[in-house]
Amino acid sequence: MAGKSIDIENHAELLQYLRDTGKILAADTVDAINLDGGVSNRTVWVKRQQQPDWILKQALEKLRVKVDWFSAPERIHREAAGLRWFGQIIPAHVPAFVFEDEIQHILAMTAVPQPHQNWKTMLLKGQVEEHHVQQFGTLLATVHNAVFAYPELIKAFDDRRFFEDLRMEPYYIYTAQQVPQAAKPLMQLVEATRQRQLALVHGDYSPKNVLVQDGNLYILDYEVIHSGDPAFDVGFSMTHLLSKAHFLPAHRSQFIEMAKTYWETYSIALDSRLSGDSFESYAVRHTLACLLARVAGRSPLEYFDDRHQQRQKSIVLSLLDAPPRTVFALIAAFNEGLNEPDADD
User: Fold this and answer.
1) Radius of gyration of the chain measured on its C-alpha atoms
2) For 59-73, what is each residue's pLDDT tens digit?
3) 311: left (phi over 0), alpha (psi -120 to 50) or beta
4) What are 160-174's pLDDT values in tens digits?
5) What is the C-alpha to C-alpha distance for residues 231 and 144, in angstroms, rounded to an integer?
6) Containing H/E element for 192?
7) C-alpha pair distances (Å), 187 with each of 173, 285, 307
């Protein structure tokens, strides 16, 4: 396979690659199943007889979205480094690293034990459980606090180019171009975020990147991991809970309460050296920016229709110039906007 680029979604190529590189023996029997790897990767489940199953990911240069969106496939090796570090920080909540290939831009990890469910899928069915949300908050705080036990994380992950490619530009900068009324606060947040290098930031902390297995959360996908502003993770993840409160009016009160529980659990577990009024202010600003980006950026929420997009945009714009002072106040203001008489007509 030297010099030839393979496509792991082509199972014949994948099997030959695994044999040629000695990852499996010639006599080994394996099955491969293509998975929904999101927009940025090919993802394949490799089922091995009498051996632990693997998940293989291969980074795409052009992401699978309607608009042009590119990022260097070398980011898979940043993800591999993130996976190894998360294995030290929260070992019971991540797959095990198996191998990486720097030529084919492939990362292999153990598969999360079956049976498991994707947390996003559960939430979209209205399956909201408090202990999952509490675990989600505690794990994020544990990751952010890790900088004090491992100060070398700041330098190890100080390259932010993939965060710029996959978050700053498509979420904040592109949205600022599409929504001129939001341009000033969004670009101010971009510049502030670039200056803040406080902790290890996952960068894609979302229910879609969480598998639930026997009540335990497994955290996946580290390709935009970097040392930066931990409040970004809060805003990015809070956006998913609030957007589902928007999308599922029959479960709205549950999602609003879970958003409060998430922030409370996280903030209690967060090291006091990171927390404070300034941190909460940034958490509010990132939440508003992500709420807007998920309806006007390069990666809009796929379950929203035009009505949802316009409603969320209107609520965020009403709050963006004078953001609420606390996360609880933001949650309340967003909920109030959703419950206005015409919100679900």
Assistant:
1) 20
2) 887 655 555 566 677
3) alpha
4) 999 998 899 999 999
5) 10
6) helix 183-195
7) 7, 12, 26
